[in-house]
Amino acid sequence: QRQEQQEQMVRAVYDLASEQLKRFDELKELKRHQEFQDLQEVLNLKLREAQQQRQRQEELERLRKEEGQERLRRLYSIQEEVLQLNQQIDPNYRHKDLPKIDLSAYSSRGNQICGLVSGLIRTASERGFPTQVDVANIERALQEMRGLISSMQQEIAAAVEEKKRRDEESRKQQELQKKSQMKAQNGAPAQLPGGKQTKEGHQVKTDKSIMRWYQELQDAANRCAASFSAISNCKDSEVKKTKMDLQKAATIPVSQISSIAGSQLREIFDRINNLLSGKSVRSGGQNVSVTQHPQGLDFVYYKLAEKFVSQGEEEVASHREAAFPIAAVASGIWEIHPQFGDLFLAHLHKKCPYSVPFYPAFKEGTSMEEYKRMLGYQVKDSKIEEQDHFLKRMSGMIRLYAAIIQFRWPYGNRQGTHPHGLSYGWRWLAHMLNMEPLADVTATLLFDFLEVCGNALMKQYQVQFWKMILLIREDYFPRIEAITSSGQMGSLIRFKQFLEECLQKKEIPLPKGFLQSSFWRS
């Protein structure tokens, strides 16, 4: 029995050992398979990464080639424009009303720019594809060529203007000599109350009542500026700090106006309104109030109005839809604080005389730079800004003005009237059409004004409005066309298409960016 038990125990131990050996072999085989599988997965991953890297490189190379080809096409397009602009410079140019003008300097510089552009394109082509730096260099050359053409045209225009002025003076002298002989005749042109008029009945000068209004606003702005001279010119460090704090408290909220949400606009409006109401507001981590200085309120009014006009000149000029949120806050402040509105108009008229409308006349003894400033151009270091930039700024300010006259602050007093409503827009449009058009400027500003404010005017004046639109197309548009040169046709064509589309559809659509009622719930 002991022997059998011993044998059974041996067999059991043997069987157990055999089973453990089998499990060990199975585990070893499993581990080997797992290692092989892991290795295979790593290899597959490496292969996929290599393939993806190759595809990325191929895609980058394709994009690089496409960008290079696009840049090359851009270079050729710029070269074509430069050559076309250079053709406008004729060293032997003669104007029908002028003696020969020496344009050799313009011609020489134009040829130099053409040579420079050709050299840059040749060098870029030899390298394969042009870089962004090449494009930037050639675009600078294009800007210089445009500036050259603009300067040449301004010189010619100034010479023509001077010739006209001399001819006008000569004509007046002859009229004075013959005046005694013509007293009994009725054919002499009369000086009408509305200003000097042409034989077709359009005014050369702005209506006297409008000019009185314009001058009253400028006088009010000058008085306001004089009233805070102590805070402006004071050397005391404490007063200087107060002035800077007040200016930031007034202007920073205006810079933050956007169409993100109606609640944000209301918050900005409350901050500005509280500041003008004498309450303390938080600005730059501290409390600021106009009561900190006796002249603080006038200073804030002046700087606030100036900032709103600057927003039209800069922000609206670049982003047209921005006109409406800025106009919403401005009209709300205007409704509660009328002094702000007068200062806003004064700043607007000074920077953009066409918003009056007012065309400053060239006076003897006035330099061309000073005259350009009067017309609204920026002049820095004796260099007059380019026409495109000038029109862009004027467009931004007119769009802001057109948005303000039709928009009311939704949380204001609905019982009262708009402080500067649509009737002022109708008056502006009527006076514009009563004046002789200016090349490039009139078509641009009429288009901007009607695109922003046309829908509101159409709803307000209905049949009268459409009569005015027909008058513009049938009578006034040909006048603009007659004085527009081939290089200024862009604004004219855009205005014509706008008129034709509106008359065809009998509808002027809501402008882009208009703030619907749902916006104020956001």
UniProtKB/TrEMBL annotation:
One of its GO terms (cellular component) is nuclear pore cytoplasmic filaments. Keywords: Coiled coil, Cytoplasm, mRNA transport, Nuclear pore complex, Nucleus, Protein transport, Translocation, Transport. It comes from Anser cygnoides. It is found in: Cytoplasm; Nucleus, Nuclear pore complex. Its main location: cytoplasm. The keyword Ligase does not apply. InterPro entries: GLE1 (IPR012476), GLE1-like_sf (IPR038506). Residues 33-70 form a coiled coil. Residues 159-206 are annotated as: Disordered. Belongs to the GLE1 family. Residues 160-178, 197-206 have a biased composition (Basic and acidic residues). GO terms for molecular function: inositol hexakisphosphate binding; phospholipid binding; translation initiation factor binding. This is mRNA export factor GLE1.
